């Protein structure tokens, strides 16, 4: 766990007029302060977003947690279509975006409701692709290197269109999949979801 946050007097704020702040230039201190504020905001967003997950799943999560870090049972819950996955993802999204105070989804503005649904669909996709990676069906997926928090906070700000899905060379349909266009390849992989869910369920039970 992180230690307690303590606040002291910043010498940067106390240098004499016309003097040089201790330890470097005004610009370097300003950049340090900006980075510190960003780190603090990210930690606060993660704490809000994952508060319900610690109760729901019984695991600890932080601002660096990615889909690749999730235990198999948690990943399966998020990948499986249904109310449980939707509720869990909304908990994360609403908490991280500081919208959890809304008592009902309908209390959100139309723009916020659309954003929450779009982010939820993105996260659900990443959970399913990560599940397929663990089954050795896929080698990679567009947001594999991103944390869950970054996917929520930076939604709409990052262009991820350059990465297309591809079956792993060990998959029986690899060669036929490679001959398809990127769009048809993605459609084929998405149609495999029910089989992937069943294979992952059997893996969990074995």
Descriptive report:
The chain is mostly helical and 206 residues long. It has one domain (27-205). It is built from 8 helices and no strands. Helix 3 crosses helix 4. The protein is globular, with a radius of gyration of 21 Å. The protein starts with 25 loop residues before the first helix and ends with a helix. The relative contact order is 0.10. Mean pLDDT is 84; it is low at 1-17.
What are the SSEs and their pairings?
Blueprint: H1 26-57, H2 72-79, H3 83-96, H4 110-134, H5 148-153, H6 174-178, H7 182-191, H8 193-205
Helix pairs in contact: 1-3, 2-4, 2-8, 3-4
Q: State the distance separating the first and last CA atoms.
A: 33 Å
| Number of helical stretches of at least 4 residues | 8
Strand count, sense and barrel status of the largest sheet are:
none
Q: Summarize the amount of helix as a percent range.
A: 40-55%
Low-confidence stretches: 1-17
Query: Which outline best applies?
Result: globular
Order of helices and strands: HHHHHHHH
> Quaternary state, please?
single chain
The figure for the number of domains is: 1
Average pLDDT works out at: 84
Taken as a percent bin, the fraction of beta residues is under 5%
Total beta strands: 0
Rg value: 21 Å
The SS-based structural class is mainly alpha
